[in-house]
UniProtKB/TrEMBL annotation:
Tree of life domain: Bacteria
Protein name per the record: Uncharacterized protein
Biased composition (Basic and acidic residues): 41-55
Region Disordered, residue ranges: 40-62
Length: 62
């Protein structure tokens, strides 16, 4: 994982604690999603008005 996807040298990968490797891996994945040239990044959820939220809650409760 460290030498392949992250591109680290083997000696650096061996000396890095596992939690730091996992954090670096998560950051690399988030960066790849955010800067993917064909979209696919995280989309903002649509904002609802309070009236729409109430209608949705009422529809779910029935």
């Amino acid at each position: 994982m460290a030498t392949g996807l992250l591109g680290w040298l083997p000696d650096v990968a061996w000396r890095t604690p596992i939690p730091e490797l996992l954090i670096a891996m998560d950051a690399k994945i988030e960066w790849a999603i955010a800067f993917h040239p064909f979209g696919g990044g995280k989309k903002e959820p649509e904002k609802q008005t309070p009236q729409e939220m109430r209608r949705a809650l009422r529809a779910r409760s029935t």
